[in-house]
Design brief:
This protein is mostly helical and about 120 residues long. It contains three helices and no strands.
């Protein structure tokens, strides 16, 4: 018996087809026919993994920096809004005080003229 007779290209394709048919009930699918995909060595896999990990860590650091900048900008905007609200309240208080003097002053004049 010779392995060359059992492991011909046509027989290997047929083995893949029959295996895929048997495993279809489990949701498995056959690989792409004629695919040029090749096995990745363990060393290459870990090199790629390390490179991707480094890229992801750099992205995380960049996003953290951007988040800190956004939080600082938000704090500045909140301070600006707070100071604008305080200025508006201050202006409103001055306006109310001025109007209250005018109203009370007019009432006071009426009271004085009615007493006289």
């Amino acid at each position: 018996m010779c392995a060359d007779d059992l492991l011909t290209r046509e027989r290997l394709i047929a083995y893949h087809d029959s295996y895929a048919a048997a495993m279809a009930k489990y949701g498995l699918q056959r690989g792409v026919r004629g695919s040029e995909a090749r096995h990745t060595t363990t060393a290459q896999y870990y090199r790629d993994l390390k490179r991707k990990t480094g890229e992801l860590e750099a992205n995380v650091r960049q996003l953290q920096n951007e988040q800190q900048q956004a939080e600082r900008q938000l704090d500045e905007v909140r301070k600006d809004i707070k100071s604008e609200k305080l200025e508006a309240a201050k202006t409103e208080a001055k306006y109310q005080r001025k109007n209250s003097k005018f109203v009370f002053g007019a009432d006071q004049n009426r009271l004085l003229s009615s007493v006289s």
